[in-house]
């Protein structure tokens, strides 16, 4: 009798287990979040508000009706944030269940918001004062404080309050005692309102040159002012094409890779560098070439002045070389103590690129003609990684047409 009972219990358990196995598993479906973003005071929809899920970095923007939508979200807890300039941000936590569409609306509070007329103040080499304006494009009163990054930059006024008016801010730089080199400083405009603070940074440039779409750092070395970067202007051409007098500045990039021009600057044939303008050899004559207005391509005499100021040819190269790992070791004598920042961009000769990371070669404008007239020779200056001396080389016309080197510009006296 006991055996029969045990068998019945065993059979019953088998039935229960088989029934359990027939129950389909729970299916978890994604959910959605929808909602509207409106003005808390007017209830008007806010167009182009940014709505994001902070944990997943998913984001979207509201349409003309202030609506937004996130689809196919894995069930779970999320933090949703709504942002719009001139409004305080809004945050909400939401829990999404399987196959659920959750409605999350935001009513954003209008706040004061600064509008700055300029975010870059370029004092060049000659300016000492520049003004910009600050206005309030938001609601209510805006209090601002302006803080420069250096003591030689002064701000007037340095603070103020505005509602619907515009304040003019004058920035003055005191150049007295400042070495003639490039400066990239900032001015911080801090806006204060009941919901928090907002910082806007304004760049302040001194002694930087803007030329053909980009800025170049500069440095004074002795009585001379040089660009502290290799020139990088013009249209890239490939190694198998010759530059020509076609009114377009043409450059080579090492290995025909434009990224190398971004690092080391362009490589230019000599006649392209002087813009096909052959001068006499008078030392006072300056050829602008492909340099910006007020600057020119350097002559032998100017290279000699630089080298003499640095203590002579045997050590001058080390003082000009950058100390970065762009140079192959041992980069003998490199200190860059004068800020010239010579980089090992190599050169191109006979349609072949040579010695990147091992040498830098700069053109000089100085040239000479042969007795019969057409022959031409010019000079370049090279600094290799294995010594700190500078090599000066005279290049004949046949080589000039197939040799491309780096170019530095020097400021007119």
Can you give me a brief rundown of this structure?
This protein is mainly beta and 413 residues long.
Task: Quote the beta fraction.
Answer: 35-45%
Count all strands and give the number: 32
The secondary-structure class comes to: mainly beta
Strand order of the largest sheet: 10-17-16-12-14
What proportion of the residues is helical, as a percent range? 10-25%
Number of helices: 6
Could you characterize what this model shows?
With 413 residues, the chain is mostly beta strands. It has 3 domains: 31-108, Sandwich (Immunoglobulin-like), CATH 2.60.40.1120; 114-206, Immunoglobulin-like (Sandwich); 210-411, no CATH class. The protein has 6 helices and 32 strands. It has helices spanning 2-22, 258-264, 270-273, 300-309, 313-320, 397-400, and strands spanning 31-39, 50-53, 58-61, 67-73, 76-83, 90-96, 101-103, 106-108, 114-116, 120-122, 129-136, 142-148, 153-156, 159-162, 166-173, 183-193, 196-206, 209-211, 214-216, 218-221, 224-227, 235-236, 250-251, 268-269, 295-296, 347-349, 352-354, 359-369, 376-384, 391-396, 403-405, 410-411. The strands form 10 sheets. Strands 10-17-16-12-14 form a 5-stranded mixed β-sheet, with no helix packed on it. The radius of gyration is 34 Å and the shape is elongated. Mean pLDDT is 89; it is low at 280-284.
């Amino acid at each position: 009798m006991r055996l029969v009972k045990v068998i019945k219990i065993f059979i019953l358990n088998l039935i229960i287990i088989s029934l359990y196995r027939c129950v389909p598993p729970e299916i978890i479906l994604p959910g959605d979040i929808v909602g509207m973003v409106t003005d808390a005071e007017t209830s008007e929809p806010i167009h182009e508000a940014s709505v994001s899920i902070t944990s997943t970095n998913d984001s979207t923007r509201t349409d003309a009706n202030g609506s937004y939508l996130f689809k196919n979200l894995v069930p779970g807890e999320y933090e949703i944030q709504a942002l719009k300039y001139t409004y305080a941000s809004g945050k909400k936590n939401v829990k999404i269940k399987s196959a659920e569409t959750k409605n999350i609306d935001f009513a954003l509070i209008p706040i004061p918001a600064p509008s700055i007329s300029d975010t870059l103040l370029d004092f060049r080499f000659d300016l000492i004062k520049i003004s910009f304006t600050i206005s309030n494009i938001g609601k209510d009163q805006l209090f601002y404080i302006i803080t420069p990054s250096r003591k030689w930059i002064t701000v007037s006024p340095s603070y103020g309050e505005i509602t619907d008016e515009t304040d003019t801010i004058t920035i003055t730089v005191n150049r007295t005692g400042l070495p003639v080199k490039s400066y990239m400083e900032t001015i911080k405009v801090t806006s204060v309102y009941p919901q928090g603070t907002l910082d806007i940074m304004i760049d302040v440039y001194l002694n930087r040159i803007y030329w053909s779409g980009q800025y170049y750092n500069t440095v004074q070395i002795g009585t001379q002012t040089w660009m502290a970067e290799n020139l990088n202007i013009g249209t890239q051409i490939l190694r198998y094409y010759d530059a020509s007098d076609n009114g377009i500045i043409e450059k080579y990039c090492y290995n025909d890779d434009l990224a190398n021009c971004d690092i080391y600057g362009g490589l230019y044939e000599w006649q392209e560098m002087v813009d096909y303008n052959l001068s006499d050899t008078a030392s006072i004559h300056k050829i602008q070439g492909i340099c910006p207005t007020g600057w020119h391509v350097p002559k032998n005499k100017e290279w000699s002045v630089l080298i003499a100021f640095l203590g002579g040819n045997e050590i001058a190269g080390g003082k000009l070389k950058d100390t970065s790992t762009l140079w192959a070791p041992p980069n003998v004598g490199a200190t860059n103590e004068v800020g010239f920042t010579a980089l090992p961009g190599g050169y191109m000769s006979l349609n072949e690129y040579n010695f990147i990371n091992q040498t830098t070669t700069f053109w000089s404008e100085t040239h000479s003609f042969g007795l019969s007239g057409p022959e031409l020779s010019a000079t370049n200056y090279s600094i290799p990684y294995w010594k700190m001396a500078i090599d000066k080389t005279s290049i004949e016309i046949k080589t000039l047409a197939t040799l491309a080197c780096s170019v530095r510009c020097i400021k007119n006296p």
